[in-house]
Fold this sequence. Notes:
Elements: H1 14-35, H2 40-66, H3 75-96, H4 101-129, H5 132-142
InterPro entries: Hemerythrin-like (IPR012312)
Pfam families: Hemerythrin (PF01814)
Protein name: Hemerythrin-like domain-containing protein
Amino acid sequence: METHKPxxxxxxxxxxxxxxxxxxxxxxxxxQDINKNTAAATIGKYILDFxxxxxxxxxxxxxxxxxxxxxxxxxxxxxxxxEHAQLYLLIDSIxxxxxxxxxxxxxxxxxEAHIRFEERTLFNHLQEILKPAELEEILLHTK
Length: 143
């Protein structure tokens, strides 16, 4: 098993990291339900509820408060935005087909990879390049 040393997180990203932890718990639950052969429609409803109540707001805040701090051509910004776009498309697909367990599993896998990317790569990059005033601005909007 790959180990990662703890990352000293800027206060500007703490709430986002807490949301990510909550997201990973949802991913764990989705996978548990798939393994227990829970009805796909039930899992699909769970995913859609999570998206509508939590994830959509989280994505919007990241897009407005974090991604926008990077130049449009920045490769990490492009990756983050592309992954959000993929996840939005998957949510639309789940709305139209809640019974495809492979689709539900794909959502869980992609969301986990996206969270790991943000936590291990994007946030670290931003912590290195953003000025203290920019970090403070993010923090003010997440309280």
